Amino acid sequence: MKTKELSKKYKNYVIDMRREFHRFPEASLQEYRTSARIKEELDRFGIQSEIIADTGVIATIVGKYPGRTVALRGDIDALAVVETSSKEYASKNLGLMHACGHDTHAAMLLGSARVLNDMRDNLNGTVKFLFQPGEEVARGALKMIEAGALENVDNIFGMHISSDLPCGTISADSGPRCASADIFSLKIVGKGGHGARPEQCVDAVVVGSAIVMNLQSVVSREFSPLEPTVLTVGSIKSGTRFNVIAPTAILEGTTRCYNLDIRKNFPKIIERVAKSTAEAYRAKAELTYTYGVGPTINNETYADLAQKSAQKLVGAENVISRPPSTGGEDFSEFSNRIPGVMVNLGGQNKEKGFIYPHHHEKFDIDEEALEIGTAFYAQYAIDYLNLN
Ligand code: NI
């Protein structure tokens, strides 16, 4: 297998790049150094590329033979986490850390560009490499799309390293992979006054509390138990003093689900419960609902294709199934527009101590995974372009 051989050849290159990105993490939508370095590397290998959406990079390899266009996506941003590590590649930007592994995505995608560049004489079509900024703030994908990243693209493939999957394994399940992640805020307006004379007031603390409790029955009583759904009120802000009745309260929360109908119904249900509860207490409630990212649902055809590509690299026994995550992923911005698949690459190694969860200050992965991920990006592109 040519992709395997070439990924082995570029293994040390990918590890070096990963360590460099890890040393210099940048915040979402501020990835100026990272994107400049990616472009510099692509230029060095004669691969056509441009900076788009301020801090993203899009590279293109046109194969010798005509055909469809497939996009390979890797996100490149880091998180506001203080890294606890004595490793030589630990973050040099205090307060920022590649704690989700996007450094590995950027490096593997660069590696796969080198692999496919070496194989362009055998390619049936075009491969676009999307180095995406701002995933952690769920805005980078949309920004790249607005800049034209999906123009003439037929299919998209995304990968995420996973510290909960053993190194050497891959998951490319079809169906729900990541949940939608929306935000809501409720403003409750009552009437303030003296804590000793409640009859003169409308207590926003009591109204807000009742709304929080009533919202708990939305998921359990209005949606099917077979549809995983979350409604969380994460914050209540109200009141100033023990003997003052609060005139207002602000509740903030998030919803998660995989079902588009449920997602669509959430705002009107939350509004109905909040308004009618407020009314029962003589108060008013106003909802602001902000759509964040949609669910990432893997297309069955292309999940099957990705599983076959994975089997060629790690063997069928190492292509494993992984339950969906209730986390959000803005890959959905791409895959809700064109068919695509999002896969997970195992990066965990208990013997070597790579066991920490994503976003943890000790997060790290087994770099042996990088060679597999590099090959997987390239193999999927080839297998997709070779489809009849
Ligand atoms: Ni991530």
Protein described:
The protein is α+β, with helices and mostly antiparallel strands. It has 2 domains: 2-178 and 295-385, Zn peptidases (Aminopeptidase); 181-293, Alpha-Beta Plaits, CATH 3.30.70.360. Helices cover 35% and strands 27% of the residues. The protein has helices at 2-9, 11-23, 32-44, 102-118, 140-146, 204-222, 260-280, 300-314, 332-335, 368-385; strands at residues 48-52, 56-62, 65-75, 124-132, 155-166, 170-171, 175-178, 181-189, 193-194, 229-238, 244-245, 248-257, 284-293, 296-298, 340-348. It has a 7-stranded mixed beta sheet, sandwiched between helices. Strands 10-12-8-13 form a 4-stranded antiparallel beta sheet, covered by helices on one side. Strand 1 and strand 2 form a beta hairpin. It is elongated, with a radius of gyration of 24 Å.
| Rg (CA only) | 24 Å
- Note the overall shape: elongated
What fraction of the residues are assigned to beta strands by DSSP?
25-35%
The CATH C-level class name of the largest domain: Alpha Beta
Average pLDDT metric = 97
Q: What is the count of β-strands? A: 15
Known CATH architecture of the largest domain: 3-Layer(aba) Sandwich
Portion of residues within helices: 25-40%
What about the largest sheet?
A: 7 strands, mixed
Tell me the series of helices and strands, N- to C-terminal: HHHEEEHEHEEEEEHEEEHEEHHEH
First-residue to last-residue Cα separation: 20 Å
Query: CATH superfamily assignment of the largest domain?
Result: Zn peptidases
Identify low-pLDDT runs.
Answer: none
Bound molecules: nickel (II) ion
Count up the helices.
Answer: 10
* CATH topology-level fold name of the largest domain: Aminopeptidase
> Based on helices, strands and strand pairing, what is the structural class?
alpha+beta
Side by side, the strands of the main sheet go 1-2-4-3-5-15-6
Count of all domains: 2
